[in-house]
Amino acid sequence: MPNNAHLLIVDPEIRAAAREALEPLGLEVVEVASGAALVAGWDPERTQLVLLDGTAPGLDSLALCGELRRFPGGEHAPVLLLVAGDDPDGVSRAFAAGATDFVCCPLEAGVLAHRARNLVHARQMATHLRRSEEKLAKAQRIAQLGWWEWDLEANTLVCSQEFYAILGLERDSFGGTYESLLRCIPRSDREELKGLIDATLRGGDPFSTDHRITRSDGAERIVYQQAEVSRDEAGDVVRLVGTIQDITERKRAEDQIRFLAYFDSLTGLPNRRQFTERLARSLQTAQRHNRLAALLFLDLDRFKRINDTLGHSAGDHLLQEVSSRLLTCLRKTDCVTRPSEIAAESVVARLGGDEFIVLLGEVNRVQDAAKVARRIVEVLSEPFVLQGQEVVVTTSIGITLFPFDGEDADTLLKNADTAMYHAKDQGRNNYQFYNESMNATAFERLVLEANLRRALERQEFVLHYQPQVKLQDGRIFGAEALIRWRHPEMGLVPPGKFIPLAEETGLIVPIGEWALRTACEQMRAWQEEGLPTVRIAVNVSSPQFADPGFAATVDRILRATGLLPEHLDLEMTESILMGDVETSILCLRQLKELGVWLSVDDFGTGYSSLSYLRRFAIDTLKVDRSFLLNVPDDPDHVAITSAIIALAHSLHLGVIAEGVESPEQVRFLRPQGCGDAQGFLFSRPVDAEEFRVLLACGRLDCPAD
Ligand code: C2E
Ligand code: MG
Ligand code: MG
After folding, report:
1. CATH number, residue 275
2. Which of 499, 683, 700 should be mutated for ligand 1, with most atoms under 8 A from CB?
3. Ligand 3 centroid vs 193 CA: distance in angstroms?
4. 636 CA from centroid of ligand 2 (Å)
């Protein structure tokens, strides 16, 4: 629809002349007969011009003009009033009534056309400007962008609406001076901003900065300020004009993104990405200053079991605890850095899962890295409390040294990982340095696994037997069957070297079954020979125990070999039993129903929840060898050993001391009421042939009191 011009002119001749003058402007000329018709058909958007007849008697054009002005959108309408040329006050009255302009009667068509064109043009410009302003204001509102202008001489600060909105202020309460602006900025950021403003006023260069503001409601926000100077004709700085934008949300999002990209959300430690970047930087620094740096690669031992048995939230909690212990540990042992030089950074990061990494940005001697590693091993092996239960977790650490074990981050990390596996192989809960020969070890591990798979069919396993004796008189009452691998090249491989691998690969199930059957067969054979009947103890591994068919397997083997169940003792470590307590209770009950003996091996080293012990259908506790090692010299070990013996008594369980090596230990044990023992003092584990001889004798030397 084209834009229009409304004509309210009574005289038909003048009306026709006006139409003729206006039509060439491209406006659709609408003639109206009355003020009411004008108001009814008037569209402030489309009506570009209103021409009112101020000369016609009976038409109150002045009142009508005022009415149009009050109409929504009518305040900007160009209203042209026709006034009588001979009325000297007509023009003033027209303007007073709100007319935009006037034309005199008699009407000069050319004058009307000019005036009308100017008015239409001005209106279009004004509309355009108004729309731009509206758009700008809207854009500024959306962008949370305000502006201000500081007149230096008058010290007045004129600000946009959005400026006030950002500061949470009303225009009236602001104050409108430079100082009022500064008051909204926290003291800590104020001086810096003042410095920037001063520099801009002096040097004339614009500035931009992020800083905090305190809104009138006390909330703190972050804004981005930009400002530049305005000069007068003489080139003197007269004003500073600035914009202010609320970037709080963006900043928060940026911080969040940065956090997610660079930190581990569970522990808050740096993640792998951040760590590798920092490592690369640290290595450069170490190289420049000719320094040693060390990487400690940590993996929690058997962490999976915590997740499997106590649940993932307990696992998460444990990882958080581990991370905070690592941090404290590093703080305490960070004395390895030389204070006199530029401090090299030490970083703890989580690589994922239960893997952590520690970078010691500077170490003076190799032993310093070992010192930190030892401390970590110690600190982490102290019990954690998870869901009200005490849990003991250990860690294995692999260490690489820059530049010996690698000159770049990747190599150092890879080698530290290998060293960590070496630590696991060494029985976990320890640290190992990486060195060239360990590459060979990694290879050996692969070969070992391949060989282990074939060892059963090649009949390379043998059992050795270690007697268990009565401390009263040295009588042999039992034997523990201990497996060895007669490796064609490596010779007799002790179980510590292959059982962990067999457990990881699942090969322990057939190997364990073989050991059980062989031990039962052997004992049965000795019985048939007429040798004294003793109990044979066989070690059971976690995957065997977890197998629901385990009791049936034991039953089958007992029947097949003809060994009576009371002559078989199954040894399970405390941690196997504490894995899934309810299942353990059931399994133990099933086994107990068969009539076999059940012992807890290495007691005192695993999960120390004594309340469960009562519910386990067990017969004997085997005191772990590590406690006896320092008995009777170490008061702590004396206390633990005595406590375990007392505990066994109070639960009406048997107790066997493992690893008895000296007569002093025997003299300590006897009065405690521990009557059974096993250890090198009596005999090392020996092969079947030798054990047969011991058994035939039936008794071993036992120190007197
Ligand atoms: P364990 O069941 O605690 O066996 C006792 C270990 O302590 C044996 O080591 C034994 O030789 C050693 N020992 C006994 N008395 C003394 C002593 O007086 N001093 C010292 N220093 N050590 C002593 P071994 O034979 O190397 O076995 C190590 C572990 O391997 C066993 O610990 C057991 O956990 C595992 N193992 C052995 N045979 C089997 C098996 O057939 N199946 C499974 N699953 N594990 C086995
Ligand atoms: Mg054992
Ligand atoms: Mg043991």
Report:
1. 3.30.70.270
2. 499
3. 71
4. 23
* Domain CATH code at residue 172: 3.30.450.20
**Residue that terminates a domain, selected from 197, 225, 252:** 252
Asked if the model's pLDDT at residue 682 lies above 90, the reply is yes
Ligand 1 binding pocket includes 541 (Cβ within 6 Å) = yes
Tokens of 200: 């801009």
pLDDT at position 436, please? 52
Buried b (16+ CB within 10 A) or exposed e, 299-312: bbbbbebbbebbee
Q: Are residues 126 and 215 in the same domain?
A: no
Is 157 domain-assigned?
Answer: yes
> Is the shortest distance between the CB of 536 and ligand 1 below 6 Å?
no
Let me know whether 572 and 472 are in one domain.
Answer: yes
Residue 64 has a pLDDT of 87
Rounded to an integer, what distance in angstroms lies between the CA atom of residue 562 and that of residue 590?
A: 19
Please check whether residues 498 and 643 belong to one and the same domain: yes
Mean pLDDT of the chain: 89
Q: Give me the number of domains the chain comprises.
A: 4
> Would you state the pLDDT for residue 426?
79
In a domain, residue 444? The reply is: no
Tokens of 251: 């900043």
Report pLDDT for 340.
35
Residue 261 in any domain: the answer is: no
DSSP 3-state assignment of 464? strand
Q: Which ligand is nearest to the CA of 466?
A: 1
Atom 45 of ligand 1: nearest residue by CA position: 539
Q: Is the pTM of this model over 0.70?
A: no
CB distance 657 to ligand 1 below 6 Å: no
Res. 439: pLDDT tops 60: no
Residue located nearest, by CA, to atom 25 of ligand 1: 482
* pLDDT, tens digit, 9 for 90 and up, residues 86-143: 888 888 888 888 899 999 888 888 888 898 889 888 888 888 888 888 888 888 888 7
Domain that holds residue 9: 3-138
**Percentage with pLDDT > 70 across the chain:** 96
Decide whether any atom of ligand 1 lies within 6 Å of the 467 Cβ.
Answer: no
In terms of domains, do 55 and 179 share one? Answer: no
The residue contributing the CA closest to ligand 1 atom 23 is 659
DSSP 161-219: HHHHHHHT--HHHH--SHHHHHHTS-HHHHHHHHHHHHHHHHH---EEEEEEEE-TTS-
Q: Do the domain assignments include residue 443?
A: no
CATH number of the domain enclosing 596: 3.20.20.450
> Residues 525, 471: one domain?
yes
227 ligand 1 Cβ < 6 A: no
What does the pLDDT look like over 463-480, one tens digit per residue? 999 999 999 999 999 999
Which ligand is located closest to the Cα atom of residue 628? 1
> Which distant-in-sequence residues (6+ apart) come within 8 Å of 569 by Cβ?
478, 535, 536, 537, 538, 596, 597, 598, 599, 619, 620
pLDDT of residue 70: 85
Digit-coded pLDDT (tens) for 211-264: 999 998 999 999 999 999 999 999 999 999 999 999 999 888 888 888 888 999
Closest alpha carbon to 166 in 140, 195, 138, 128: 140
Q: Say yes or no: 457 and 370 in one domain.
A: no
Q: 499 CB less than 6 Å from ligand 1?
A: yes
Based on the domain organization, do 474 and 623 belong to the same domain?
yes
Shared domain check, 228 and 110: no
